[in-house]
Amino acid sequence: MDIRKGDIVAWPTNLGWMMGPWLVYASLLNGASMALYNGAPVGSGFAKFVQDAKVTMLGVIPSIVRAWKSTNCTAGYDWSAIRCFGSTGEASNVDEYLWLMGRAHYKPIIEYCGGTEIGGGFITGSLLQAQSLAAFSTPAMGCCLFILGNDGYPIPQNVPGTGELALGPLVFGASNTLLNADHYEVYFKGMPLWKGRVLRRHGDVFERNSRGYYHAHGRADDTMNIGGIKVSSVEIERICNAVDSNVLETAAIGVPPSGGGPEQLVIAVVFKDPDNMKADLDQLKKSFNSAVQKNLNPLFRVSQAVPFSSLPRTATNKVMRRVLRQQLAQANQNPRL
């Protein structure tokens, strides 16, 4: 992120998430200041705070950017002091991030991905390299990355591909014990060997493209099996989010039918207007179907579009698709709920 003496750094976070300690140390060790905002960072109040504090480095997560864009709450505020954005926490979207760059005269966005359990990042963008929007350009210092193929073993480093990400076993700051689970079973059991060492499981799905850039596709446990084809929830959500201007966000969930059988694709929908919960869901379902079949796979079919006032999230703002899956599966078994 190239934080320097005199910089003013703002990153909505908390100390229970890795980015909390990161904000403290990255700012103060480099002679920069922290800009701390008391409240939710999703409205015009935060946009004014960024302006008034003359923030030079602003950290975001994609969900916040999506909220800013949908409400246009940053309009009229001067963010010209920003020279760099940072982004982490979720898979990002090219259109939304191009919009974000436009708030600060198209300053760069540096993607950063890591985990609290490894005490830092394992893949990042860099101001020293040409960047690709919503993509990572390099493994973090001291970290080796591997993308596992369908056979469960790493594909060659110079070959494009998509699969679950594994880390080299020696990572700066990585955990070696857990308080409430077996560390080996969580991170190493069943993982392949590399140069005589067992690789470390991380759980994200990543793509390495032909240009050498990496794209995040969400958690491996967020993948669904639709018609015998594995697909990431994030891929479907990116398409559905753009279908209707009234949609704030979506979550794609694979839900088993009450009588058993293949997973059915259900789209949980949050509307920009909370009073729009009774929109024409049948028409919206048809629109989702058309977009998914055109842009992703003609064999995929959306079985339901279900309205939600908001999506359940973790303390770090990640969508809890497992909770949604349980709620939707229960609703299928008990239609009156």
Automatic annotation (TrEMBL):
Location of the AMP-dependent synthetase/ligase domain: 5-166
Pfam families tied to this protein: AMP-binding (PF00501)
InterPro entries per UniProt: AMP-bd_C_sf, AMP-dep_synth/lig_dom, ANL_N_sf
Top-rank taxon: Eukaryota
The protein, known as: Putative acyl-activating enzyme 17, peroxisomal
